[in-house]
Design brief:
With 72 residues, the protein is an all-alpha fold. The protein has one domain. Helix content is 85%, strand content 0%. It has helices at 3-20, 26-46, 49-70.
Length: 72
C-alpha cells in the first residue's frame, strides 16, 4: 500500500467514524467536515477530481450544519 492510498484510507475511515458520532456533539460534525477536506485532497491528489469536488461540497455542508448546531 503506497502513502497516497493509506492517506485516503485514513481520511475515509475518519469520515465514517465522525459521521457515526455526529449526534454526540457538534464538534464531531466539525471533525466530519475536516475529514471531508482530507477526503477531497485525496481525491484531487489521486486524480479523481469528481470525488475531490463532491467531498469539498460535503465539507462545506458539514460546516454549515456545525454553525447551525452551535447557534442553538
Amino acid at each position: 500500500m503506497d502513502a497516497l492510498t493509506l492517506f485516503g484510507l485514513v481520511a475515509v475511515s475518519l469520515m465514517l467514524l465522525f459521521y457515526a458520532l455526529e449526534d454526540k456533539s457538534p464538534w464531531f460534525v466539525l471533525a466530519f467536515a475536516g475529514s471531508c477536506v482530507l477526503g477531497s485532497a485525496y481525491g484531487f491528489l489521486q486524480g479523481a477530481w469528481p470525488f475531490g469536488l463532491v467531498e469539498g461540497v460535503w465539507a462545506m455542508v458539514a460546516v454549515g450544519r456545525w454553525r447551525a448546531l452551535r447557534q442553538r
